[in-house]
Every structure is written in C-alpha cells, then in structure tokens.
Amino acid sequence: MLASVFIVMGSLILIVTVIVLNGAPSLSLEILTQTSEGGFYLGAGGGFLNAIVGSLLLALPATALAFLIGIAIALYLQKDFINPRIANFIRICLDILWGVPSVVYGVFCLTIMIAIGMTGGSLLFGILALTLLEIPIITRSIDESIKMVPIGLKESAYSLGSTKFETALKVVRRQAMPGIIAGILLGFGRGIGDAASILLTVGDSNYFPTSLSDQTAALPTMILNLVSMPDQVVQNKAYAVAFVLLMIVLLISIITRYLTKKSSKHIIK
Amino acid sequence: MNMSPSMISSVLKNKFILIGILSLFLSFIFLFLFNNFLLFVLFLLVFIILLVYNFIKITRKLYDTLGTRLMFFVTASMIFLFFLLVAVLINGSLNILSEESLSNLLFSSTWKPFSGEFGLFAVIIDTLIVTAISMFIAVPISLLSAIYIAEYAPKKFRKIVRPFIDVLAGVPSVVFGLCALLVFVPLIRDDIAPFFGSSISSGFSLFTASLILSIMVFPIIISLCLESFNSVPIALKEASLSVGATKWETIKKVIFRAAGPGVLAAIFLGFGRAFGETIAVSMVIGNQELIPKSLFGPGQTLASLIASNYTEVSSIPILASALIFVALILFVVVLIFNLFGYLVLRRASKRWKY
Fold first, then answer.
1. Does A90 contact B85 at a Cβ distance shorter than 8 Å?
2. Phi/psi class of residue A214: alpha, beta or left (left: φ > 0; alpha: ψ in -120 to 50)?
3. Do B153 and A5 touch (CB under 8 A)?
4. Which one in A63, A73, B152, B334 has a CA-CA gap of 20 to 30 Å to A92?
5. What is the C-alpha separation between B213 and B206, in angstroms, rounded?
6. What is the pTM of this model?
7. Which positions in chain B touch A242 (Cβ < 8 Å)?
8. CATH second-level architecture of A15-266?
C-alpha cells in the first residue's frame, strides 16, 4: 500500500523533474519577452510572449464570466430560494457537465462557429468554450461551501429583518469565501491548462490579439504545435513553454492553499 | 414652470441628475455632430437608467425581487444551456446520420474522410482497450493508496501527501502528454515492447496512452475515495475493532461496505475522465485508425480522433458532422456513467443510514 502511494507521488515528481530538466535550459529572458516568429511556428525564432498573453486573455475573462454565473447559480441553489428536489436536479446536471470531456465543449463552439460562417478561430469562442468548461467547476465548489453555512447564521440574518437576497449576498457569500476562492482558482487553473477546447476554437497567431474576433496563440496549443515539429530546436522551445505553463499551474495551487487557509480564519463555525 | 435659483442649485447638487443631463447632452452631440450611433445609444441608455433610478426609488424589497429574478434567470439559462449543448450536438450529427446508416458508422472500420468513409469501429475498439487498461492499472493503485492515506498513514504523512494529489489533479493534460512523449515513448520503444516480443514498436502505442491516462486518473479516484472513506462514522470502525476484528478485516468488511458506493462512483468518474481525455492521448497514441494487432501498435481513441481531424473540417463539410457525432458519443457515454454513479450513490444512501 505504501508502494502505491509512492507510485502516485513519484509520478508527480517524475512529471515535474522531466519538464524542469528539459524546459529550464532553453528558457531565457528573451524567449519570455518576445513574440514568436516564423510562419506558424515552423521556425524556432522569437519567444512566446504572445502565447502567455493569449492564454491570460482567454482564461481571465472566462474565469470572470464563469464566476459571475457560478455564484448566481450556487446562491440560488439554497433551499431559501428553490425546491431542494429541483436544486438536486440542477446539481446532477452540473456534475454531468463537469465530467464532460473538454473536447466536447470545443466541438460545441466549433459547431456554432461553422454555423455562423466563421473559420480559423477567434478569441471570443475560446473564451466561450473555457467559460462553459469552468462554470460547473466553480459552481459546484461554491455550492459545496454554501452547504456548510450553519443554518443559525442565516436565521439570525432573517430575524434581523434582512431579505433573502441580502442574506445570500452579504452573509452566505462571506461565509462561503474559502469555497469561492478555491473555486475561482481551480477554474482558472483548469482553464489556462486546458488544450482540447482551445485547440478547436482559437486558431493560431504570431501576434497579440487586438479584438475578440482575432485568432490567438495560447500556451497549451503552442506546446502542441511546437512539439509536432521534427526540429530539435523547436521542440526545446516547446519544453520551455511547458515549463512556464507548469510553473503557472503550480503557483496557482500554492496560492489556492494559502488563500483558502487565510480566508477560512474569519469563518464562523 | 418657473424655476427658482434654489431649485436649480438643488438639482445641480444631485450628481445623478447632473450626470443624466450630461449624458443626454453628449448623446445628441454624438448623434448630430459625429454621426456615431453606437455612442448615442450608449449615452441614451445611461440617461434612461438614471431616470429610472431617480423616479422609481429602488427599495430593499425591489432590490430583493430583482436579485432573486436575476439569479433565477441565470440558473434557468444554465439548464437551457445544458439542453442546448445536447440539441446542437444532435442537430450537427444529423447530417452524417442521413448520409450513412448508424450501423455502418459504428461497425465499419475504415475511417477515410477524404473518400467519404466514416467507420468508427476500430476507433471505438481502441478507445475501449485504452480505457480498460488504464483503469486496470489505476484502480488498484489508487484504491490502495486511498486506504493507506485514510486508515494507516500518520497525520504528518497525510499532510505531505494531500498537496501531491491536489497538484497532480491540476497538472494540464498537455504537460502529461509531453511527459509521456519524453519518458514513456522511448521507454516502450527500447525496453518494454522488445521485452514482450514486438520489436517494431515506435513507442507511439495504445499502451503508452494507457500508462499516461492511468496517472491522470489517480488523483480523481484517490480524492473521491478519501472523501467517502473519511465520511464513514468512526463508531462503525470502533464497533468492528472492539469485537476483535483486525484492522484489515475492519477495512475489508466494514469500511469498504460503508464506503463502497462512493468508491464505485469514484471509479465511474475516473473512467469518464480516461474515456474523454484528448490531448495527452493524441500526443502519444500514434493517431492511426486501425484495429490493433498488439498493445504496442498505434491506435486512435474517439477523443483524439477529433483533435487530429478537426483541421480538415473546412475542406470536407461532412467531416464536421462526423466529428460532432463522435463528440455526441463521448457526451452520451459520460452522461450514462455519471448518472449510473449518481444512482449507485443514491440507492446506497437510502439503504445505509448511519
């Protein structure tokens, strides 16, 4: 049994070391601060700043949107607002959506793009696909922490004369803060790392996107493009991109730990 | 109407009214001087909103109603979206279903989009094999580690292991794929495949994909199992231990019974993840739509089929429909497995009340 635990821990260590060993040597300041050159990554020229910016432009709006939608749904699922049976049905729907492979969201957005006659890809549909991907994650995470809110707290808010909406927004929301933070960061981490939905929807570009209908590069798709090239120099660049992506994800999970610990200090138990 | 100076000054003091008048003024300037219709509408909207805000005092009750309505609207549109997703996928795949019969799609094994043949049989077989092997590897390892972490591990060790599992769950699939490309592909090409007697393997194989998939599934199964192990009431454990059962007997006969449905649900969810994983698989599986002759030969799963074919969508319109059909299959299978997991959990929670 201990051996199997070590297999699990070892596989993470293996992944991190492999990416660090391969990625760190080809990482340099200029590769981080330049946009890529060469028609669609055939060449090794330039850096990948455009992919970093592209990924952030995809994941940040998607997370913001998914958060706004998610917190509205999660607050509404309390039994103050809705019949618990219906709430459970919605929870099942969300769980199913959580389990749906991200490529399905990609295909969904691709279908809409084909239907409106758009080819190649755009930032907008990338954001849309990521939002769809993140909504169930964020909603369920907030929902789980709202379930933990003690009923006495809500009742005391009601007894002081606050309305349902005020209670939800001011009391329950504050009490559910650790879950909200964890949900947002979890969703963001998933969104910035997911390749399948983005691959089908954003296309590719060597520049910064300037409008929502522009094609854009992103970290995960860039890794895929670069690694399929036969040239060793280009592949090294892919490892560097993967190194940056892994570091971002690790950083997010450290921040999540820190912030949830910090925010759960002020929770009334 | 006669306006006294004091009235005007009180109007000007109210900054909402001031902004409202200003925006109305600006909206006309934009309409007549710059011919900019968009900004006209925008400023007019600001004016109207401020007007409404001033005349209808937003009371707390109205605020409550509006907020509740808004939340209801968002939730309802979420449910609508769920059904829209299904509808779009079905609608998109109607095209291919009218072109070819369902049995031809599912049971013919030639996938040649350029000559209009869309047989998915080989891909489905590959998908089943890859998923089955990865679950075969992942389930025992993750179950054993979950038992160890929940029941045997000292508290300090548990604190060290938890972050490992959480981080592993968050690693992007493309990083998993890259890692498999760097480690597993050469390993299988040079050592494992020759050891099993198939010397011509390129390393891009079904087995490589299964290996990386099993690693990706570990954290899901482990964390869900831990959750259900931890929710077994301590009194049950203590009762079993007090009648003389050993620790292992307690785990096998009491904890596993009580947490069994949770474990089963975890396995179903892990299966769903392995079934639908796209990028990591498509990087190492070799991307050839063949019925496999050996585990060390190349293949293609349903999800990776989409990733490796989507670029030709614009040149072959019917291919888009075929890929949507594949996505529909993925969706339906995941749906069934999730529902099944849910039903298992619900039945168990009715039978086991503790």
1. no
2. beta
3. yes
4. A63
5. 10
6. 0.85
7. 174-175, 178
8. Orthogonal Bundle (1.10)
